[in-house]
Structure formats: structure tokens, C-alpha cells
Specification:
The chain is mainly α. It contains 10 helices and no strands. Helix 3 runs antiparallel to helix 5, helix 5 runs antiparallel to helix 6 and helix 8 runs antiparallel to helix 9. It is elongated, with a radius of gyration of 18 Å.
């Protein structure tokens, strides 16, 4: 099967996730900046989760530029990733409503960790289908950012036991690390143009 249906479905699910998160934001009770300040926590948690969903969408898009066919394992792995990402509106809202209490911040970190692991499972399923020396494995190489993210999420979860702000800070560091544009796939595509291009 070609990748277009999987990509379209994934794009739709990710758009719905972002929509649900923005609907969770509370409108300020009054017209002043002070009233807006009461919504600051919600805006910041929304921003962090929006960035994370955007990072996954961006990397998913790049990854599937190197995939020519979809197997059953890839389909199920993709659904697993979407399931994990679909929990972000819940964990984001809980963290916001409880004003960064330890348990919701830990739960949010576990959600981020599970998303990273689900993405790795999807990437592994694609690499397994493509075989050694496949396009994705060749383009990504050692993939240091992907390998360093789960330990940082785990450090954030453990850091939250000391202070919730420490966990949120580490989750933010991982997001900032992934905001730096990753050109590996683009470089691979430029070096290996499709026939007829």
C-alpha cells in the first residue's frame, strides 16, 4: 500500500489533537491584562504541547518522504504513535488545571516518554521493512537526538519529584532541542533524487 492514506489520516488526527488542546484554553474572566495573566499557565502548557505535536508532525512528514510502501506493522506502529499523541490534550489540561502539581507533571512527562518510544517503534518498523542500508536508516545515521530524548524525559519525570518546575524545564529543553531544523532527510533526498527528477 502507498503512504498517502496513512499520511492523510495522521495529518487529520494531529490537527484534531491541536484543536482539542486549544478548546481546553479558558477565556479570561475580564478585559484586562491582569485577567489574561490568570490564563497564562494554560497558554504556556498549550504552547509547549503545540510545539511537541508540531515536532512530531514535522518529523513524521520527513520520515514518510523516505517510505515507498506501508506494511501492516507500519500501520499499527503509526496508530500506536497517534494513540500516545492523542493523550496529550488530557495530560496537558490536567497539568494546567492542577497548576503544575507533581503528579500531573510526572504524568505529562510519562506521556512524552511514551510518545518518543512509539515514534521509535514506528521508525524501527520502517527500517526493518526497508532492510539494512535502507533510505531511512541511511538518512538518519546514528540519530543522537532521538536517542537522547527518552533519558531526558526520564530525568524530567525524576526531577519532578524534587521540584515540578525542574521537570517542565527538562521537557522544554527537549522541545527546544527538536526545534532546531533537522536537515538529514532533506540532504538525503537531495543526494538521492527519485528517477525522472
Amino acid at each position: 500500500m502507498r503512504t498517502s492514506r496513512l499520511e492523510a489520516f495522521s495529518d487529520g488526527v494531529l490537527a484534531i489533537i491541536i484543536t482539542i488542546m486549544v478548546l481546553e484554553l479558558r477565556v479570561p474572566e475580564g478585559p484586562t491584562l491582569h485577567d489574561l495573566g490568570a490564563s497564562a499557565t494554560g497558554l504556556l502548557t498549550y504552547l509547549l504541547s503545540f510545539v511537541y505535536v508540531g515536532i512530531y508532525w514535522n518529523n513524521h512528514h520527513h520520515m514518510f518522504q523516505l517510505v515507498e510502501r506501508v506494511t501492516g506493522g507500519i500501520l499499527w506502529s503509526n496508530l500506536g504513535l497517534l494513540f500516545c499523541l492523542s493523550l496529550l490534550p488530557f495530560t496537558t489540561a490536567w497539568m494546567d488545571e492542577q497548576h503544575f502539581a507533581a503528579t500531573p507533571v510526572i504524568t505529562y512527562g510519562v506521556n512524552l516518554l511514551v510518545c518518543a518510544l512509539a515514534y521509535w517503534v514506528l521508525q524501527s518498523a520502517i527500517e526493518r521493512d526497508q532492510g539494512r542500508g535502507g533510505a531511512l536508516a541511511t538518512a538518519l545515521g546514528r540519530d543522537l537526538k532521538a536517542r537522547s530524548s527518552p533519558p531526558l524525559y526520564l530525568a524530567g519525570v525524576l526531577g519532578t519529584l524534587l521540584a515540578p518546575w525542574l521537570g517542565v524545564a527538562l521537557y522544554t529543553v527537549v522541545a527546544l532541542m527538536w526545534l532546531v531544523p533537522d536537515r538529514r532527510v532533506e540532504r538525503y533526498l537531495a543526494a538521492h533524487p527519485a528517477p525522472g527528477q
